[in-house]
Amino acid sequence: MSVNVTVNYGTDERTITVEKNSSLGAAIIGTGLPLEQPCAGRGTCHKCKVIAEGELSPYDEKELEGLTQAERGANYRLACRTRVLGDVEVTLAPIVVYSNKMFRACDDYKHSDEPLGLAIDLGSTTVAAFLTTLDQGRVCLGAAALNQQTAFGADVISRMAAALRGPETSQRLSMLALSSIVQAIDALKLSRRVTARIEKVTIVGNCAMHHLLLNLPVDTLAELPFEPYSTAVVRQPDGLFSDTFPPGAKVALPPLIGGFVGSDALACLIHYGFDRAPAPMAAIDLGTNGEVMVTDGKRIVVASTAAGPAFEGVNISCGSRAVDGAIVKVKLDESKGNIAITTIGDHPPVGLTGSGLLDLICELRQTGIIERSGRFAKDHPVFGDRLGQDHRGVRRFLITDQGVDLSSAESLEDAEQVSLYLTQHDIRELQKAKSAIHAATDILMAQLGLAPGDLTRMILTGSFGSQLNVNAVVNLGMIPRVDLDVVELSANGAGFGAALMLDEEEFARGERIAAAAEQIDLDLDAAFNRRYIESMDLPGQQS
Fold it and tell me: Whole-angstrom Cα distance, residue 293 to residue 303?
């Protein structure tokens, strides 16, 4: 009897017909899609984890040993140990992404037996894990994986709507979050001996991520006035992390601030010392959800704004995660009529990251290819031949005709060469994202009576925020026109703050900051929509 196995890998979907009781791993390999099986099917390496749904053999002893409860709840299987009994749909495990950590990693943890901690930043798009020494508080390693909840949508609104469908979907979202944490930890590539030394874990995230992980009700968070079900500290959730972390490890989730401002923003406030600021300062954690934080040296005000996934390369026609070949920097040379692009790992270009998108649009604005309104110019004396339209009549700009499509290729050598374009739609997505950030920052500064010139620090953080071209940020109006000298690009402030809160005194400090910080509800601010619309313009070069 023959059955069908459909395998999804990113945007690539392939179906193969196999005999009933065939190995799932063999079926996947038969499609030509990548699958690691270093142990040759013995079930000992656990490298062949896939999400599989359909008629499958029961979990065997090796799978029960190699998959956590969370992974089993998210329908993970070891492909080498699983048999196909009927039609099956498989999703290959999401790839590990660059964690964009701008810090010097150290291997001191390898040379002693001091206790270790894990700091987890559960982001909407990316989940980051940091290994930290507890005795001296050093962050030694950082790694990241994609948040698998993206199967239910790129934004938290879509995921909360899914959770409201019923307890089964809500539980699935919780298991996907846990599986994503496991993948981020796996990406650290820790030995069993090192893993066994982990004694404490701190997990931070925005309010939606926090609630979906803990499987808390999200109904009050999903509608006005957008209040969390609970903002309280959570320690050792009953059974949730029973096999996610080493036995005996103490797990804590710091308090939420309120609204959509969660413990990830709180971690940033701790890491950047907002409670000890001698002068006005601001920080923005840029991502699918942007957290904005401002202090005048006395009060701390915070807000969350839905910037959308453009900063993560999502909803962009040739958008890309931070993977090999992703474009991170673009430079136009009008005198030579060429475009220089920089990609991760110097690999052939596969698409634009958020930082590459911002860089490109800034360059196109400075050369007059994009007008202040965000529209493409009708023509250009140097790059006019790169302007055109797609089959739907949408205007676009040719970035490069040397791109590669890896979605259906087994290797780089087999990849099809493609052209990569920036479309009018892409520009609008960037305008909406940057306008949300600018308007939110304006509102918070107005709350404290601050002008841009009053800020002594403007910190941009997050996996996207730490990789930006500062000139592009200011010249395109993503933030108020502050002096370039006060703008700082920082590593993952939320992750580093979570690492600090592995210490009990710092955790208590975080509780005090959470109680003192004032959450501003932008939806109830009459000026927000006006400021948002005003911020849609792309100003151009700062004079």
Answer: 7
Tokens representing 494 are 């939320």
Contact predicate 332/290, CB 8 Å: no
The phi, psi pair for 189, rounded to 5°, reads: 55, 50
pTM equals 0.81
- pLDDT by residue (tens digit) across 172-221? 899 889 888 988 898 898 998 999 999 999 999 999 999 999 999 999 99
Torsion of CA 45, 50, 51, 54, to 10 degrees: -100
Beta strands in 406-523 (DSSP E): 416-423, 457-461, 487-489, 518-519
| Nearest Cα to Cα of residue 366 among 482, 476, 467 | 476
Q: Assess contact for 498 and 438: CB atoms under 8 A.
A: no
pLDDT tens by residue, 403-456? 988 655 555 566 788 999 999 999 999 999 999 999 999 999 999 999 999 999
Which carries the bigger pLDDT value, residue 392 or residue 502? 502
Q: Cα 185 to chain center, whole Å?
A: 15
> C-alpha distances in angstroms, 465 versus 262, 462, 469?
18, 5, 9
> Of 287, 342, 353, 348, which is closest to residue 320 (Cα–Cα)?
353
**Do 159 and 166 touch, CB atoms closer than 8 A?**
no
- CA distances (Å), origin 528, targets 115, 444, 524: 47, 10, 8
Q: How far apart are CA 123 and CA 210, in angstroms?
A: 10
For the record, the structure tokens of 318 come out as 């040739």
The distance in angstroms from the start CA to the end CA of the chain is 73
For residue 101, what pLDDT band results from cuts at 50, 70 and 90? very low
* Helix residue spans in 40-93 (DSSP H): 61-66, 69-73
Phi, psi of 73 (to 5 degrees): -65, -25
* Residue carrying the six token digits 């199967």: 151
